[in-house]
Amino acid sequence: MSEETYVYSFEEGDGKNKQLLGGKGANLCEMTQIGLPVPPGFVITTSACREFYHQKKKLPDGLMEQVDKAMADLEKKTGKRFGDPENPLLVSVRSGAAMSMPGMMDTILNLGLNDQSVQGLAKLTNNERFAYDAYRRLLQLFGKVGLRVEDEHFDRVFDAEKDRMGVAQDSDLDAESLKRICKEFKKIIKEKTGGKFPDEPREQLRIAVEAVFASWMGKRAVDYRRQFHITPEMANGTAVNICTMVFGNMGEDSGTGVGFTRNPGTGENRLYGEYLMNAQGEDVVAGVRTPQPLKELRAHMPEVYRELEELRHTLETYYREVQDFEFTIEKGKLYCLQTRTGKMNAWALIRTSNDLVNEGLISEEEAILRIPPAMLEQLLHRRVNPNYDGVPLASGLAASPGAASGKIVFTADRAERLGRMGERVILVREETKPEDIHGFFAAQAILTSRGGRTSHAAVVARGMGKPCVSGCEELLIDSTIGEMRVGDLLLREGDIITIDGTGGHVYQGEVPLVDPEFVEDLLTLLEWADEYARIRVWANADTPEAALKAREYGARGIGLCRTERMFNQPERLPIMRELILAETTEERRKAINQLLPFQLEDFKSIFRIMDGLPVTVRLLDPPLHEFLPTSEELLFEINQLKSFSNSIGAIENLPYTMRILGKSLEEYIPAVETAVGEIEKIRLKKPDAELWKSKEELLQRVKNLSEVNPMLGHRGVRLGISYPEIYEMQIRAIMEAAAEVVKEGVKLQPEIMVPQVCTLQELLWVHKIVREVHDEVQAKHGVDVHMKFGTMIEVVRACMRAGRLAELAEFFSFGTNDLTQATFSFSREDAENKFLPLYKENEILQDNPFEILDVKGVGRLMMITIEWGRRTRKDLVVGICGEQAGHPAAIEFCHDIGVDHVSCSPPRVPIARLAAAHAALKQGSRMPMV
Ligand code: ADP
Ligand code: MG
Ligand code: MG
Q1: Cα–Cα distance between 802 and 866 in angstroms, integer?
Q2: DSSP assignment letter at 817
Q3: Active site residue 49
Q4: Which residues, in sequence order, are CB contacts of 563 under 8 Å at separation 6+?
Q5: Does residue 905 line the site of ligand 1, with CB under 6 A?
Q6: What's the pLDDT score for residue 1?
Q7: Active site includes 904?
Q8: How far apart are CA 573 and CA 466, in angstroms?
Q9: Atom of ligand 1 nearest to the CA of 95
């Protein structure tokens, strides 16, 4: 029986097979095979790891024999021997799964040393300090990873020795100190494990391999996979990479560092990174000393720098992607120890996408696909000027993107008070609670010292689109005395700070910010995206300003123009109220005729802005009471008026009361009587009578209009049919405006959309008005106005009657907010406030269906609707205009079921355009819809 191959040398491993070799291992193989200077080594497969767990944490049979063979091979290549007391072969034992999980699993360096070979190494290199530095690192890492001794025990010894020698940096410790440390480390291992550090290198290796496998199921790694939704299909088990050691700690001609082939913050096409001389492994990342920027290496070691430049070009040409790599310099010689795709922010991704296409390295399709659409969100906010190079005061989690400066306040109440006075404030708390919400409204940004990306502060800030840094643990915040400490620095209320929620940083004082801008590179990229996309992106826009934004962001039309917003403006609301309070058709017409010119102007300016593109206007939708004050507000005002008249009565009685009270008040009475005379004059004027009456009437009307379930009540087309004058006025305003701008030469396609329709009869009813007004206006102006008539689909019955509705409707637009409510029978507010969080927590529902389109239920209804609708009308145009429409997953789904366009808020248009291209380009790799 031939046993499974668990071990592949870097020369033979298949660099494309990350599932088997892990990302790090696969890339080490590839780099070796394209001739990059990788120290010799081999990979133990993830399959061995799975087998390890299968056999209750025992290494699979035959594995160690295969490892022995591979080690013998390494010995041949390096001319050293594993365990040789004079010239020992040392290796690192490194983890690495198919998905990168930075810092989640463990690595051991310098494996193969023991009390004898450390002396051999010292002699051989003529560098005792180096040998014991390597040894102490092995003891600590092996102790920690292989034997589970906590780091702090080692750190304590190490720091004590530094103190004793009066040195600040690890590299200043001499050989004697390091020797003492090694001795202490071995003692700690003995104390903490009861066993002893294994001198035998093969034993070290076995334990190390087991430990790396075990770290796959360590708490840190398991939590990480859960947090980032890494499923077994994505990564199943870790590989182990055994790699010949190269030494960055051999003196001042040696060092270690990390590099990016381009700047991951700006995308600039230049080598970027940091390095430390005389250091090994994680020193750069761990921050034991402050590393130097890589550009300084050019002066320090020009030859090595040139090699790094070469490395960068080779890596990019081969991987056709920006790389993040690790390197070590051993006595002036460069080695590459790892490479992977560089993580970049949105700006860098966009810039490099363009550059890589221009350099001929990738295609337009690849340039589009390497940017996750949701990342463009970063571009929608203000941010710290990328050229600013100040050092942050502290850093935490980038909980909500954007940047803002302001004065520190420590309580929500203070935030509100100062905010009202026009101050720009930053709410700083240890953590926030629901009762701080008023502070969020008043603040420019939020900063907390505790809590993660899903903490209250983070979630609420994101919901409001305010920058937030959470979990900034370096801050010591005491809100009771109003102080915040960072190291030695003390900050108080009123001190200015800047929050960078995109990067997760806090700066002292005001830092230069830049507005969100559309860089040229993004525009190019989005143009490419439009070429590949099938589904088009429209915008929801109710006002001329929003229409301008929509155009600027590249929307191909307005998919939803809500007319109710137009009535909510201060000078129109009173007329709207008159309309609602009108008792007769006559009175209603009077109010409506006052509203018409406003609507006309609104439509004209929107139509002009959208010249050449379709504009979908939705007729009035919300229930009328939304335009009136609430009965609580009215009752409050009526009570105020009541107490006014009561007070007057009380004052008029005052002189009598004073007389009863006796002589002591007598001298004041004349003055009071004079005052009472004045007050009587006020009463006779009855200043409150009119108002009181009208408020009482209004209250009555509000009570009449009040509904048990307003969202399921008298609204949409139901309202239009009850008060035909309103829809007629709106239709007239649209037609007249269209006719007028057509005469100006504007190319226009108004589309009239009826909300809340559930039967063809409703559509017929509105359509009749549309036809009449259309004819009338065309005749009056002597121009042709091309228009379309259609319906929203937001009622389940409308889905079921799609075939009939399409007889009249030239287009459908899914209003997925209402359709989701109707499909689930959830009222959104109640659901989100009461039980949706619980449902998510218990995984009864994966997502909030009001944010993420519910493909399985609502989506299914959409599919049926489209199919039936197009059976009646082949060229039925289908759009979606709910809040979910701007999300990449919804766009993908809409692409698959044949929706023609999605309509989202203007700032989301770029995200949607990119997502539309992704949907088209990735179509082949998706599971077919069933
Ligand atoms: P991580 O995945 O946490 O980066 P690595 O396995 O890449 O862990 O290793 C940790 C550190 O040790 C890195 O800086 C790496 O470059 C360094 N390192 C790993 N193997 C060797 C080796 N054979 N020689 C020198 N340095 C090494
Ligand atoms: Mg690494
Ligand atoms: Mg609706």
Answers
A1: 8
A2: H
A3: no
A4: 542, 599, 617, 618, 619, 620, 621, 730
A5: no
A6: 47
A7: no
A8: 30
A9: 6
